[in-house]
Design goal:
This protein has 790 residues and is an alpha/beta fold. It has 27 helices and 24 strands. Helix 11 (278-295) runs antiparallel to helix 12.
Length: 790
Amino acid sequence: MYSRPMYVASLLLLMGMVMSHYLLHEQYISLTILSVLILIFGHMFKWALSRSYSILLFLLVLTGVSYYYWYDATNQTLLKESESDELIRGRIVSQVQVDGDLAKFRLKVMEVQALLVDEAVECRIYLKSKEEQEQATKLIFGTYVEFKGQLKAPEGSRNPGSFDYRQYLYYKRIHWLVISTSLADLKAYRSANIRPDVVMNRVRDYLERSLERTFPAGSSEIMKALLLGIKVDLPQDVTDIYGKLGLIHVLAISGLHMSIIAGGIFILGILRFIGFTRETSIILTVLTIPIYIVLAGAAPSIVRSGIMAVISLVGVYLHRGRDGLNLWGTALFLMLIYNPYYLWDIGFQLSFLVTWGLILFVPYMRSFFHFLPDSLSSLLAVAVTAQWVSFPLIVYYFHHYHLLSLLANILFVPLYSIVFIPMGFALFILGFVHPGLVQLWAEGLAYGFQWMNRMIEWIAGWHGFQRHVAPPEVWWMVIYYIVLCGSLWIMKGRRLLWLFLLMSVILSLSFIPWQGEQVKITFVDVGQGDAIVIQLPNKRVYLIDGGGVLTYDKGESWRKRKSYFDPGKDIVVPFLKSQGINEVHTLVITHGDIDHIGGLYTVVEDIPIRRVLINGTQPKSKQETELYQLLNQKQIPIYQGRAGDWWKDAEEIEWKILHPSAVENESDNNSSLVLLLNAYGYKILFTGDLEREGENRLIESGDLDKIHLLKVAHHGSKSSTTEAWLDRLQPDYSIISAGRLNRYGHPHEEVLTRLHQVNSRIFRTDKQGAVMVELRPTEMKVWTYLQPSQ
């Protein structure tokens, strides 16, 4: 500790905050115990055992525990959810995003219905006219507004693997959404006072417009992300392909940008060239870095690199030695004191973890590539280290990794580091002198981006190299980093090789997904729709429908949004990835209603499908036609199911199609595929949107008897699930997939009453989130995501 005081102090503070968090939330107590053990053993074997030193270590951990506890305790709200419009006054503290008939921004609320408050909320205003849209585009950062809206609690995660928006906002100290249905009554005015944040935002807007003038469309969006951290305009397909290959970090401002600035390519070097002394150049550079941090959006990665750069330059100015781990520890300590919630920011975690790995491992990793030129050995050492260190976090948060990620980083990161980012800075600055000076170079850079993006898209399209991984347990991640540190121990020439090899074996074995003799069924909460995932012991996966959102023709083109909710992309695909599912063996499309197929287009694009089972009706909508075109384009076999078809996936796992017997001239709902799964003696009935007529035909056929679990047809509509149907089935459990507060009133009270009359236990996705069913030879368990104790 004496040689690296800030490094050790920051780790102890971090340990205390982590302990405080898990103690507060009563989770992962084992992690807390492990942290204490690490502290004890680190104290016993690494450092001196003086009494004063022990007290100092204890106080640092206690500081982390108590400070995080206090910080979290202050994260409270004075507001309450409202059922009617309330008058809200506040100041806009973000960019206003206008997308079709929706305007979004963050508001620092000052008053709600005469109640004085001081807290931030997220605002959603639904626009009713083209004039309101134009009015919304005039709202800017710092504008004071007064309007009416309802306070609503943000939605939390309702499915395994889905994004928890409520928790995300909580760590931003935001507790409410404000929903308004019109901008007509909004009053906007600006303060005469000059605020620093408003001034900086105006400068950022000006720089953004300058970038758009300097670089042609197609490259200006990427340059805004690279130089200013503005990612709003980045095409979604670009971020998707970069994310698949583990290259998304190159689109984030980080230490590379800071090295360009603090290293002097554009500031220190220029100032020395102009004639400033070395000391004056350093001072001006140190003063410039915080300004750039704010202009670039102050993301955790840029703040971390900025702090380290400033301290490093101050060390140069004072002719003091600089230790990388001490610089790292100082940045960590300062940022956690400023905001302990940084701990749960993915960018913060990756930035600090990768930087820590680079400081520790790269000097030793270079020796493995000593036979290569220095520049290439350094590149390989950095790429391999970054991959090793970030792997647990990548699979934990994103549930996938690409086997070609290392190769992609080796090929493309140098292009960004040596060509695109430095040239982008240079052309951006020269553009202020005269745009004509850079036009040809900017077009050349844009062509380079297009070429590189095509290459990245081509590599990312190799689905066989992409693996989806269920998020590892925390204890696995702890063992991983212990093994990683053990490899450093070995690289330093220390012993304990046998322990390292043993833990490596344990780590590898524990990462293999072991699935016993069980069938897992998940009724995914996709809102008002159906999506059911069945995972079998032989790793075969069935997907029955994929949800969808009912859309209505909004008329005018101005209402069309670029970003919209897609249950396939936003819910089903993340769920499949979180389960480590790399292929769907059978996709079952019960019928063509949009709330059953709307999300499947994205699923088919992202997840390999081996075969498709349909009811045989002709496509009746544009979305259904496009889905079948995509299936044919990917050459996925399509089979038409008919009543009486059956097959086995294992000795005790059998499927049978009960309906339809033929495609008749009737509603799509009554043409729904109905499947019966018999696993270990438990019978599960999947009904699509079957209605009364279809139910009566099945009753008359005599193919049905007592079942254990029923997927209630048509989301609980009263036109389905008749008394005669339930008298025949007598289900022990009934699952209803419906949307929260849906406009149809599903499930209908009559249906709920009928289910209660046959003593069927009801589970509802609108109330309880995803419903999970586990079938084993000896038992059947049903539980829900939001209420797992049930």
